[in-house]
Amino acid sequence: MKLSTNENMGKNYEVLGMVRGNTVQAKHLGRDFMAGLKTIVGGEIKGYTEMLTEARDRATNRMVEEAKKLGADAIVSIRYTTSAIMQGASEVLAYGTAVKFKK
Questions:
Q1: C-alpha to C-alpha distance for 7 and 86, rounded to whole angstroms
Q2: What was the pLDDT predicted at 52?
């Protein structure tokens, strides 16, 4: 399954609809402690980077599964958004348009 492009791809396709996947990720106490220390000296907070990468991957996989259920060949115009749900927890949302190639 092709995952993202804003281009026509040189093929005709039928739009099946919007597909999405999301996950809510909470902070891990150990990661939060280390992040607090990192704010003192500066630099990348690798624990949070890994956590958000895992969350984006999970949201993407859920979006792809939704597209497969529709019989999609590709998802175009994929976007990601992150929002705070409550203190210490964030939602990662992946969304795009599922399409089926015409023969």
A1: 37
A2: 86
Q: Which amino acid is at 41?
A: V
List the structure tokens of 10: 């040189």
The set of residues, in sequence order, having a beta carbon less than 8 Å from that of 23 and lying 6+ positions away, is 55, 58, 59, 62, 91, 92
Q: Whole-angstrom Cα distance, residue 18 to residue 66?
A: 9
Q: In what order do the strands lie in the sheet with 13-26?
A: 13-26, 89-101, 74-86
Task: Provide the pLDDT for residue 34.
Answer: 54
**Does residue 16 contact residue 100 with C-beta atoms inside 8 Å?**
yes
Ranges under pLDDT 70 in the chain: 1-9, 27-42
Task: Using alpha carbons only, give the angle 51, 56, 60 rounded to the nearest 5 degrees.
Answer: 150
Pick the CATH number of 13-101 from 3.30.110.70, 3.40.980.10, 1.20.1640.10, 3.40.50.80: 3.30.110.70
